[in-house]
């Protein structure tokens, strides 16, 4: 399960050491952590990270198969998590040490910055291959953070981007070796800790107003 | 006139060996071909190509001058063709072997991927020079597939992009030599033939929802 | 104060030799100059430039502090200036010889092209640091001209981009040495003087319709 730690001004949210899929308990735990970061005061920033082969593999498809009646509520909760992270009033940095797939990849796009391990692991939107269309909110989130060409390529071809390719395509800001990944993420977050506050929250909220509207639409999240 | 051929999973639509302008008969023929691709079943993809100096020079201005009363219906039909291609439920690849101008360039942008001959031929939106403003639907289509800077540059300056420049600007995905252009397009299409189906159609339809709405607006297509 | 000069087909608007902040008199003077360019006939283009260490430092915060009751009218006037420049029916080129900050940076983004001195001066959106959120109109303007990644980076991190970095990030079209900056801007403008006219105005107006709507919203410009 996710755990929140603090190193001076920087909160570090470890998403787990498994596939870190979005089980309802996992979502509740990440929400609680984001709530702590929000309500803290003074200079602060957030790094999300994980341990092992995966950053996150996205939706918990096993849980979803066993709770198909809850599909709409579940997607609403995932959307709300994306919206909260996308508009968080502190600088957020994702340290992608392993596979970052599907809703896990979208979660990474809701951060201000992304660093990715260069030598192993893929960033991938496999939806076109696994027959799960992006919801309108997910589509808008992805398209709001990537160039049209990269968004189109990633969304229709399900291409798996290694760290160097992801950096070249502008999906991540930098590809680094594994040893320096977390240090670099912490340092980047620390640099921008002083920006935490309402102004930053307003800036992000206005930038992504149409995306947030779609992600917070609870009446028809599946489109 | 356009002809549709099939090589295993890949349909090849040859747009013609002239200027391949959008005469009403040409539009009807391309529509019929897209209909065949849509209604086919199983893995499949589409390559569009042409023979000679032109991929397509766009609107049939001679026909339009002789049928000025039909201007609105004509533009509505062109818009509908763009919308159909943009949301086609199979992967589409344009092999640009020659000049790709104006509505021909927009037609190329409605594909999933574009390959272009490196040594000859230009991709160009000459509208600013020939005093034909882009319709709102055309403008939205172009802007949805290019970076803001490339779209602005191409649309206000009427610059002619050679293959290498078009690749550097992200207008096309790759510039290749003439000998390998069609082979590369076929191979790319073949790779993605398994993605054909409703999910892919839904993904594209949601990505470009605002563009499709403008392109399918039959009440005031000219803006 | 700004002065308008003409060299053959190219109008040159010098924004001043100070910080060139948006005092109401400065805004009126720039508006008058744009009006002259608009009402002139025949081939023409516009270069904006300045003298000294600054291209423009943006809003006149001293004046605003002394006239806080006029805040909404003032922002409405700044928005209107951006909208007018963004849709001007002639090609516009900004020659950034010095610091280009905040609303000065947004003013530069409303041009068709930007050239920037390579060795000194920064392009920067410091709003996140100085606790002034972008208005919805300003946010839309910036996001309409930059890639999602560059816009996000510039808007949340307040990074100062030197000329080379600004060119690499696609903020400016070219970084040049100081000696050739104005000559290059004049030459680029001259090349496109023949495009002046209604078609170009319509092209820009349609491309940026949603941005212009926000910038011309006089009821709630502050969001």
Features:
11 helices; 223 residues; 2-enoyl-CoA Hydratase, Chain A, domain 1; 6-stranded mixed sheet; 12 strands; 4-stranded mixed sheet; alpha/beta; homotrimer; 19% strand
Descriptive overview:
- Three copies of one chain form a homotrimer.
- Chain A is of the alpha/beta class and 223 residues long.
- Helices cover 48% and strands 19% of the residues of chain A.
- Chain A has helices at 24-39, 61-66, 71-86, 103-109, 127-130, 136-145, 148-157, 163-168, 178-191, 198-207, 209-215; strands at residues 3-7, 10-14, 21-22, 45-49, 54-56, 58-59, 91-96, 99-101, 113-117, 123-124, 160-161, 174-176.
- In chain A, strand 1 and strand 2 form a beta hairpin.
- In chain A, helix 1 (24-39) runs parallel beside helix 3, helix 3 (71-86) packs parallel to helix 4 (103-109) and helix 6 (136-145) packs antiparallel against helix 11.
- The A-C interface holds A 91, 112-113, 144-147, 170, 173, 192, 194-195, 197, 199-200, 202-204, 206-207, 209 and C 127-129, 131-136, 139, 143, 147-149, 151-153, 155-158, 223.
- Chains A, B, C: This is Enoyl-CoA hydratase/carnithine racemase.
Cross-sheet strand order for the largest sheet of chain A? 1-2-4-7-9-12
Biggest sheet layout of chain A: 6 strands, mixed
Please give the radius of gyration of chain A in angstroms: 16 Å
Give the mean pLDDT of chain A. Answer: 97
CATH H-level superfamily of chain A = 2-enoyl-CoA Hydratase, Chain A, domain 1
Indicate the proportion of strand residues of chain A: 15-25%
Number of helices of chain A: 11
Assembly state of the chains shown: homotrimer
- Unreliable runs of chain A, pLDDT <50, ≥5 residues? none
CATH class of chain A: Alpha Beta
Sketch the topology of chain A as an H/E string, one letter per element. Answer: EEEHEEEHHEEHEEHHHEHEHHH
The best one-word shape of chain A is globular
Q: Structural class given helices, strands, pairing of chain A?
A: alpha/beta
Instruction: Considering residues with a beta carbon less than 8 A from a beta carbon on another chain, report the largest interface and each chain's count.
Output: A-C, 21 and 22 residues
Please tally the β strands of chain A and state the result: 12
Q: Estimate nothing, just give the exact number of structural domains of chain A.
A: 1
Protein name (chains A, B, C): Enoyl-CoA hydratase/carnithine racemase
Pfam families (chains A, B, C): ECH_1 (PF00378)
Keywords (chains A, B, C): Lipid metabolism
GO molecular function (chains A, B, C): delta(3)-delta(2)-enoyl-CoA isomerase activity
